[in-house]
Amino acid sequence: MFTGLIEATGSVVSITPTTGATRLLIDALIDAPTLTNRWRTGDSIAVNGVCLTAIPVDNPNQFAADLAEETIARTTLASLAPNATVNLELPTPAGSPLGGHVVQGHVDATGYIESLVPLHPDLDTTDWRLTLEVPAELSPTIVSQGSITIDGISLTVAKLHSSLPDRSVRLDIAIIPHTYKSTNLHTLESHALVNIETDVLAKYAAAQRTASHDDWLTPAYLLANGY
Questions:
Q1: pLDDT tens digits, residue range 38-49?
Q2: Which of 46, 114, 140, 183 could be cross-linked to 89 through a Cys-Cys bond (beta carbons 3.0 to 4.6 Å apart)?
């Protein structure tokens, strides 16, 4: 499990298709010295919000991960270019403070950046407004002031714009200067694709709301409630 608090960034070395899974190689020498040598074979690591299995390589400052077909279809990882900046997070140890929110590393879909604009003239201290378009099917699990994960970053939905059924959902997110500078956000441009994971608690709530009437209206339920 992760919390969406990015520990550091790394960079893509290569993405190599094979006859099986696609091999992703990440370098963490410069951007993530605190993570170097902390992964062992089989350890989980989140790369842009995608939970992957780390495979150490000869270079101790790098690690590899294999991308399954489902991962390629559902995330942006296979489309990353060499030298692209990626967000890195190791799993949260049991008992550690949850500074963000519960993040599984199971990406629901990709969305695209409509805009990322500074709100003040001083670019060193300004906060930013990120506007995203996400698939309509994610709408039941996105609420204003609720949590959402963008490329592995735990963020809060500042405003959820109304949308027509079967149309993409548009939402605004407030980005503080620290988040902008210490994640991959400062490298992204308009229309860049990002990985989206909605709040797991909202997913369970949505599943309960959409359960059919007959799922809970059973003889046992009626008897227990005096019907």
A1: 777 888 999 999
A2: 46
